[in-house]
Amino acid sequence: MSATHTYDVAVRWTGNLGTGTDSYRSYGRTHDVLGEGKPTIAASADPAFRGDPDRWNPEELLVASVAQCHMLWYLHFCSTEGVTVVSYEDRARAVMTMDDSGGGGRITEVVLRPEVTVADASTAEKARALHGKVPAVCFIARSVNFPVHHDPVIRIAGAPE
To answer: Which are the contacts of 102, defined by CB distance < 8 A and separation ≥ 6?
Structure first.
């Protein structure tokens, strides 16, 4: 029998400006993402869709999930295969392509751009190669219907940039 895991979150709309959704422009897109015992994430729609630019939007949270999953698996592989990572930062980007229907669209790709610093120069090539192992096991990347690309930069601790 397969193991299963469940992930429960709540989304609470906070954008009732007094008249609810009586028209397209009468309500805010703000909402909170909640999880038991966790800090609340203040969220909204993308500003292009009347959202609050000071809050996280679903598209950003999706690309963050892809980047987080990749990072966590990558660090796992490094730890088990003798690569000591001393820093990791990813500036990931999702591309959403709108369709011709006048309102729909979909994420068509995510590009991960991790910048990894390793402790030992002799492990740099292995560090680069380990990114290639992640797509086969990353829960999030395996669950989406768009390609996830990665373009890593590997640095050596203490080496000039």
So the answer is: none
Residue 108 clears pLDDT 70, i.e. is over it: yes
Structural domains in the chain, sorted by start: 10-49 (no CATH), 58-156 (3.30.300.20)
Structure tokens at 131: 């990114």
> Phi/psi at 6 (nearest 5 deg)?
-120, 150
Model confidence, pTM: 0.88
H/E stretch holding 160: none
Where do the DSSP E strands lie in 30-104? 31-34, 41-43, 85-90, 93-98
Give the pLDDT score at 137.
Answer: 97
Tell me what pLDDT residue 1 has: 66
**Phi and psi of 45, rounded to 5°?**
-80, 165
Residue whose entry in the numeric block shows the structure tokens 């680069």: 128
